[in-house]
């Protein structure tokens, strides 16, 4: 049987206030295609299904769409767990009913370990846990739990005790294993070291399907992070090839299958003039870009020009504007001499942004002033 290991979908994630739903729908399509092509027997989705504990309506719809396609149309079971970004209770809503449709969800840790038998594999579901959580689920073991390693050992022991003979024993987990390499979008993973677990706690399992770290990587011969299906940040993560991992339960061999991207992600660093020339490959120009102007301040006019050239631009930065030009700053007397508010606005823009406002902005400003004046008159 072929298992498809993926994690950290982070449905509902936005970047610079832009929804990434279109990209997420695209990787869901790619994964569905792969399930059909490789005759996948089950999908293991190792936590951080959603980006936020209170998932947006759009994110919930997207998850519903993906699960309907995989479980019902492709008739492939999905096994998933709550990650640190998910709300265990919300994620596991209607889970008993959903398991009848082939969607197995582990929200909060339960005393009786959650396991699903499929073909030659017995697959355990271990959601995101803390020491406190494990102590509360196994109060009789409270004394032995002094570290996160202890907590994992207790939860995994309960699974090891239930190992079915002659099966492959697989566990899905969401954890930060000591020595794994992080990426920029691993927000919570980078904070402190408290939440690290050693690989040794997983001894006895044939494969550990991990989520939490966004860069695909092997921890050792039987523990692996699938990584996110798309890059979620600039920096290191731009250069990572995103993928899913296929595991053949017959011989435990693994195949890493790269996933295509709807938008590439790149940081372009150049002079403002160079950025405005935009002579880079179309694919990059139309992808998500972060623009860094090395030589000058990027004013509003230049920003809007850049957005015309790079339609999916997410971030623009340049040298900060040093308003040291004395001619821009005005005295109170000079201010009083100006009758037209738009003229004051022009001075303000010159001072704050280093350039005069274009016609559109001036028109917006005039409309705002008019609205305020009318409001005052009405009172
Ligand atoms: Mn994550």
Summarize it.
This protein is an alpha/beta fold. The chain has helices at 21-37, 57-73, 88-91, 95-99, 131-137, 148-160, 272-277, 282-285, 300-309, 332-336, 341-353, 359-378; strands at 2-6, 14-15, 18-19, 40-45, 78-81, 103-106, 114-118, 121-125, 168-174, 176-177, 196-197, 207-211, 217-218, 223-225, 243-248, 253-258, 265-270, 288-293, 313-317. The chain has 3 domains: 2-258, Metallo-dependent phosphatases (Purple Acid Phosphatase, chain A, domain 2, 4-Layer Sandwich), CATH 3.60.21; 264-320, no CATH class; 327-379, no CATH class.
Topology of this structure?
Layout lengths: L1 E5 L7 E2 L2 E2 L1 H17 L2 E6 L11 H17 L4 E4 L6 H4 L3 H5 L3 E4 L7 E5 L2 E5 L5 H7 L10 H13 L7 E7 L1 E2 L18 E2 L9 E5 L5 E2 L4 E3 L17 E6 L4 E6 L6 E6 L1 H6 L4 H4 L2 E6 L6 H10 L3 E5 L14 H5 L4 H13 L5 H20 L1
Parallel strand pairs: 1-4, 4-5, 5-6, 8-9, 9-12, 10-11, 12-14, 17-18, 18-19
Antiparallel strand pairs: 1-15, 2-3, 7-8, 13-14, 15-16
Helix pairs in contact: 1-2, 5-6, 11-12
The structure holds manganese (II) ion.
Q: What are the distinct ligands in this entry?
A: manganese (II) ion
Overall, the morphology is: elongated
Count of DSSP-assigned helices: 12
What is the count of distinct domains? Answer: 3
Mean pLDDT: 92
Give the fraction of residues assigned to helices: 25-40%
CATH class of the largest domain: Alpha Beta
Rg from C-alpha positions? 27 Å
CATH architecture of the largest domain: 4-Layer Sandwich
Terminal residue distance: 75 Å
CATH superfamily of the largest domain: Metallo-dependent phosphatases
**Major sheet: arrangement of strands:** 6-5-4-1-15-16
> Could you please say which CATH topology of the largest domain applies here?
Purple Acid Phosphatase, chain A, domain 2
Low-confidence stretches: none
Structural class: alpha/beta
Strand segment tally: 19
Instruction: Outline the biggest β-sheet.
Output: 6 strands, mixed
């Amino acid at each position: 049987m072929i298992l498809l290991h993926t994690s950290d979908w982070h449905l509902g994630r936005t970047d610079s206030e832009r929804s990434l739903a279109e990209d997420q729908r695209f990787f869901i399509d790619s994964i569905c295609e792969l399930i059909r092509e490789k005759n996948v027997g089950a999908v293991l989705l190792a936590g951080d299904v959603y980006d936020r504990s209170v998932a947006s309506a759009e994110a919930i719809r997207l998850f519903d769409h993906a699960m309907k396609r995989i479980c019902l149309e492709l008739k492939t079971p999905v096994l998933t767990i709550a990650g640190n970004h998910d709300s265990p209770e919300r994620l596991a809503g209607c889970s008993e009913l959903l398991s009848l449709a082939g969607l197995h969800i582990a929200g909060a840790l339960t005393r009786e370990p959650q396991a699903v038998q499929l073909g030659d594999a017995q697959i355990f579901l271990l959601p995101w846990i803390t020491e406190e959580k494990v102590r509360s689920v196994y109060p009789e073991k409270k004394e032995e739990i002094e570290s996160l390693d202890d907590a994992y050992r207790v939860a995994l022991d309960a699974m090891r005790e239930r190992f079915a003979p002659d099966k492959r024993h697989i566990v899905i987990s969401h954890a930060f294993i000591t020595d794994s390499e992080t990426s920029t979008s691993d927000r919570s993973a980078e904070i402190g070291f408290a939440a690290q677990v050693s690989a040794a706690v997983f001894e006895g399992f044939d494969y550990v399907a991990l989520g939490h770290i966004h860069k695909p990587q092997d921890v050792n011969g039987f523990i692996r992070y699938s990584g996110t299906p798309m890059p979620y940040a600039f920096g290191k993560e731009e250069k990572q090839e995103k993928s899913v991992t296929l595991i053949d339960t017959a011989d435990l061999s693994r195949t890493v299958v790269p996933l295509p991207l709807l938008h590439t992600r790149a940081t372009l660093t150049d002079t403002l003039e160079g950025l405005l020339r935009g002579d880079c490959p179309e694919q990059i120009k139309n992808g998500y870009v972060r623009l860094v102007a090395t030589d000058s301040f990027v004013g509003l006019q230049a920003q809007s020009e850049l957005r015309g050239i790079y339609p999916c631009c997410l971030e623009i930065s340049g040298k900060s504007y040093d308003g040291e030009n004395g001619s821009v700053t005005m005295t109170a007397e000079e201010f009083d001499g100006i009758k037209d508010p738009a003229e004051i606005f022009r001075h303000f823009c010159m001072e704050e942004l280093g350039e005069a406002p274009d016609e559109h902005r001036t028109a917006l400003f005039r409309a705002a002033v008019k609205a305020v004046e009318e409001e005052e008159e009405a009172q």
